[in-house]
UniProtKB/TrEMBL annotation:
InterPro entries: DUF892_YciF-like (IPR010287), Ferritin-like (IPR012347), Ferritin-like_SF (IPR009078), YciF (IPR047114). The keyword Coiled coil applies. Pfam families: DUF892. The keyword rRNA-binding does not apply. PANTHER family: PROTEIN YCIF. This is Uncharacterized protein. Residues 46-73 form a coiled coil. Keywords: Coiled coil.
Length: 169
């Protein structure tokens, strides 16, 4: 069956499907981050990833609140996009010998995940607003803002903290 099954009959169903998708993605990210933390050799990168792991757990808690506000049980649905991004990160990391280059690759992979989450949360917020679910917009917006901040921090580590420069030398 395709990504959008015939079970999605309304915009409310589509919103719920999107929430199931991001719920799955956040859970998968909590499983992938510890490996990235272990692989990172740059202290700023490793600490930033640890901080984001804690943040991701709080994001899952907020999503639990979103499901509660909607009167439904939290559940997830497979997200081929996040599965692919995580698989690609693992494959790329497995091909890199130089630890400095690996740090740059970890940042790139983490940013790909952040960009996916930013896109998903932005869409969910727009749908929730359109459907009048103002009670969940705050939770989703907090998650979105954290994802944007995580992306900015990754940029800082790559550019200002010298990860890319070290990898290139």
């Amino acid at each position: 069956m395709g990504l959008f099954s015939k079970d999605i009959r309304s915009m409310d169903d589509l919103l719920l499907h999107g929430l199931h998708d991001i719920y799955y993605a956040e859970q998968e990210i909590t499983e992938a981050l510890p490996k990235m933390i272990d692989q990172a050799t740059n202290r700023d990168l490793a600490q930033g990833l640890k901080n984001h792991l804690e943040e991701t757990n709080r994001q899952i808690e907020r999503l639990d609140q979103v499901f509660k506000k909607l009167g439904t049980t939290p559940q997830s649905t497979d997200c081929p996009a996040i599965d692919g991004l995580i698989r690609e990160a693992d494959n790329t990391a497995g091909e890199i010998e130089d630890k400095s280059v690996l740090d740059a690759a970890i940042i790139a992979s983490a940013q790909a995940v952040e960009h996916y989450e930013i896109a998903r949360y932005g869409t969910l917020i727009a749908w929730a607003e359109e459907l009048g679910h103002d009670d969940i917009v705050r939770f989703l917006t907090t998650n979105l803002n954290e994802e944007k901040a995580a992306n900015t921090k990754l940029n800082t580590v790559a550019l200002r903290k010298g990860v890319n420069r070290k990898a290139a030398s």
